[in-house]
TrEMBL record, chain A:
Belongs to the aconitase/IPM isomerase family. LeuC type 1 subfamily. SUPFAM superfamilies: Aconitase iron-sulfur domain. It comes from Marinospirillum alkaliphilum DSM 21637. This is 3-isopropylmalate dehydratase large subunit. Its cofactor is [4Fe-4S] cluster. The gene is leuC. Residues 7-463 form the Aconitase/3-isopropylmalate dehydratase large subunit alpha/beta/alpha domain. It is an enzyme of class 4 (lyase).
Automatic annotation (TrEMBL), chain B:
It comes from Marinospirillum alkaliphilum DSM 21637. Transmembrane segments: none annotated. It catalyses: (2R,3S)-3-isopropylmalate = (2S)-2-isopropylmalate. This is 3-isopropylmalate dehydratase small subunit. It is an enzyme of class 4 (lyase). Keywords: Amino-acid biosynthesis, Branched-chain amino acid biosynthesis, Leucine biosynthesis, Lyase. Catalyzes the isomerization between 2-isopropylmalate and 3-isopropylmalate, via the formation of 2-isopropylmaleate. Belongs to the LeuD family. LeuD type 1 subfamily. The gene is leuD. One of its GO terms (cellular component) is 3-isopropylmalate dehydratase complex. Heterodimer of LeuC and LeuD. InterPro entries: 3-IsopropMal_deHydase_ssu, Aconitase/3IPM_dehydase_swvl, AconitaseA/IPMdHydase_ssu_swvl, IPMI_Swivel, LeuD.
Length: 471, 212
């Protein structure tokens, strides 16, 4: 019978189907960071349990790590915020105690867990992969079944190498055609979320296919799968092809020699069959997607850069009107205001959505030879890992950013979620390449606008949103 | 984990769709390495008029009088009524920890986000999904009558309103069993240790690179 990619991955990891409809699913790879793991390790200790398979686990601190050289110079002990320091130290202690491989704070391989996994080849096609972070959907770009879990499940995977699950439904997002120059993977996924809403993918594994997806680089595919969760889907997926194999080959954790050939033979089967049936299909025309900017406090609140903030008076129903009104109030915007009129205070280029080398190249291309607007308080560029930073510096991107007036930082989650020193002040508007524009996400009272790296760089130069296609 | 069988709980209405996990427990409180103590910071940005910090004494902070949980009639509420897509956003289990630590035992909404839906029952928090019209009606009833309580019976899978109306809800049999018995998933899974080992032995031949 014809199967979807999700069906194939599910079947390949089924340990036991239970009578009550749940299934025991084997987990190949487990990524850990400092925020959602301490209580799980504590649970293991209290129950006198040991990790089931040590080499399935890979850890790195990311959410809490400071991104300035000054604070990073002394390692963990140099983290000024005490609670952050304790959390990072606790991850180190737990990994040392249980024998888990960890890329510690100043290891060149440290970075955002969803950048590090693929970069190391720890994320491979055909794997099941989980992490105590909802943006684990990122790894689905490799035809891997990957999703976020809570701390109880982090502990469950550590102790059993399995999870108790129910099968999800299949959703296909088909994006065909060619993107306009200046329009990127980030604009595709924001347009998808705008189309189906933040709960549109709830209960589904969301596969992305079509000519616009298959022509994307792995970085672009990761950006798209990363935000599947913002459309409600825990799982994002893209089928395996030559682009996937070329990315994976030669990475430290990837198979080598004979095992590589054996793996490729299997990985080449990891795509939905031509006649596979999906429970739901959504189609988008790539050519009609414009650069997107979020205006509200939910990722579904997006419009094209040349559009306007919507008018709650025109909302389709009462609940929508109320949520638009609340969002406009929080964001300090007026109905029908042009997006290009929104004045910015800060710009953030980084996060597990957009901090890979291709993202930095796209931003640098826009920034090259220009200057950050004098009205901006800060424009940050934060590479996703030590290795991304090194690569960018080899290409001279750091110089382009610094000359333009951006700050060039050390790797980490940074201003995506304000668990470290990088934050928005109250009422400040930020063009951000991150994934969530929830109230307070980037700092108390902060106002987030989600955009692509190229759009963020252009906004930094102009001081307000501009259409990068005309820049 | 606290067992859940029956509850006759006071209901608090949080009339808002897409209540996200950042709203339930803001990021600065995720730095704790414990599972408890999140209750005073539940809905921190809605509940207080100032910015909250970990470890501070919340009893001295200015309360937002408009926020539902600050109103006298909703003190000691154990059932939270909300709108669609409750719990969307991050995978932080700190969200159900905060709701439970505050004193909530159940949340009623038309729909829940997937990861939150998975996390909550592992902490004894019952999630009840009722259709949008019913939830709408419950909002009207809660707002209209002070001291409004709902009788939740998990074994029977029913919610009974003060007027005696009985509403049935769906429940996954495995989650129901674990909630009623207060069971730990890990212990249940480890009963299948032999099946897990057999799976690994089979896969080691088929996909050896996974086990390198």
């Amino acid at each position: 019978m014809a199967q979807t990619l999700y069906d194939k991955l599910w079947d390949a990891h089924l340990v036991k189907q239970r009578d009550d409809g749940t299934a025991l699913i084997y987990i190949d790879r487990h990524l850990l960071h400092e925020v959602t793991s301490p209580q799980a390790f504590e649970g293991l200790r209290l129950a006198n349990r040991k990790p089931w398979r040590l080499n399935a686990n890979l850890a790195t601190p990311d959410h809490n790590v400071p991104t300035t050289l000054k604070e990073r110079a002394q390692g963990v002990s140099g983290i000024e915020d005490e609670t952050s320091r304790i959390q990072v130290q606790t991850l180190d202690d737990n990994c040392d105690e249980f024998g888990i491989t960890e890329f510690k704070i100043n290891d060149l391989r440290q970075g955002i867990v969803h950048v590090v996994g693929p970069e190391q080849g720890a994320t491979l096609p055909g794997m099941t992969l989980v992490c105590g972070d909802s943006h684990t959907a990122t790894h689905g770009a490799f035809a891997a079944l990957a999703h976020g879990v809570g701390t109880s499940e982090v502990e469950h995977v550590l102790a059993t190498q399995c999870l108790i699950q129910r099968k999800m439904k299949n959703l296909l997002i088909q994006v065909d055609g060619e993107l306009q120059p200046g329009v990127t993977a980030k604009d595709i996924i924001l347009a998808v979320i705008g189309e189906i809403g933040t709960a549109g993918g709830t209960g589904y594994a969301m596969e992305f296919a079509g000519s616009a997806i298959s022509s994307l680089s792995m970085e672009g595919r990761m950006t798209i799968c990363n935000m599947a969760i913002e459309a409600g889907a825990r799982v994002g997926l893209v089928g395996c092809d030559q682009i996937t194999l070329d990315y994976v080959k030669g990475r430290p954790f990837a198979p080598k020699g004979e095992q590589w050939d054996q793996a490729v033979a299997y990985w080449n089967t990891l795509h939905s069959d031509a006649d596979a049936v999906f429970d739901k299909v959504v189609k988008l025309d790539a050519a009609s997607i414009e650069p997107q900017v979020s205006w509200g406090t939910s990722p579904e609140m997006v419009v094209a850069v040349n559009g306007r903030v919507p008018d709650p008076a025109k909302a389709a129903d009462e609940n929508l009107r109320k949520s638009w009104e609340a969002a406009l109030k929080y964001m300090g915007l007026k109905p029908n205001q042009a997006i290009t009129d929104i004045q910015l205070d800060r710009v953030f280029i980084g996060s597990c959505t957009n901090s890979r080398i291709e993202d930095l190249r796209a931003a640098a291309e826009v920034a090259k030879g220009r200057k950050v607007a004098a009205t901006l308080k800060q424009a940050l560029v934060v590479p996703g890992s030590g290795l991304v930073k090194q690569q960018a510096e080899e290409e001279g991107l750091d110089k382009i950013f610094i000359e333009a007036g951006f700050e060039w930082r050390e790797p980490g989650c940074s201003m995506c979620l304000a668990m470290n020193a990088d934050k928005l002040g109250q009422g400040e508007h930020c063009a951000s390449t991150s994934n969530r524009n929830f109230e307070g996400r980037q700092g108390y009272g902060g106002r987030t606008h989600l955009v692509s790296p190229a759009m963020a760089a252009a906004a930094a130069i102009a001081g307000h949103f501009v259409d990068v296609r005309e820049f | 984990m606290q067992k859940f069988t029956q509850l006759n709980g006071l209901v608090a209405p949080l009339d808002r769709a897409n209540v996200d996990t950042d709203l339930i427990i803001p990021k600065q409180f995720l730095k704790s390495i414990k599972r408890t103590g999140f209750g005073p910071n539940l809905f921190d940005e809605l509940r207080y008029l100032d910015e909250g910090f970990p470890g501070q004494d919340c009893s001295q902070r200015p309360l937002n009088p408009d926020f539902v949980l600050n109103q006298p009639r909703f003190q000691q509420s154990e059932v939270l009524l909300s709108r669609q897509n409750f719990g969307c956003g991050s995978s932080r289990e700190h969200a159900p920890w905060a709701l439970v630590d505050y004193g909530f035992r159940a949340v009623i909404a038309p729909s829940f986000a997937d990861i939150f839906f998975n996390n909550a029952p592992k902490n004894g928090l019952l999630l009840i999904q009722l259709d949008e019209n019913t939830v709408d009606r419950l909002f009207n009833e809660v707002n209209a009558s002070e001291g409004y309580r709902l009788l939740i019976d998990l074994p029977a899978q029913t919610v009974t309103t003060p007027s005696g109306e009985v509403l049935r809800f769906e429940m996954d049999p495995f989650r129901k069993h674990c909630l009623i018995e207060g069971l730990d998933d890990i212990g249940i899974t480890l009963q299948d240790a032999d099946a897990i080992k057999a799976y690994e032995a089979k896969q080691a031949a088929h996909t050896p690179w996974i086990f390198n």
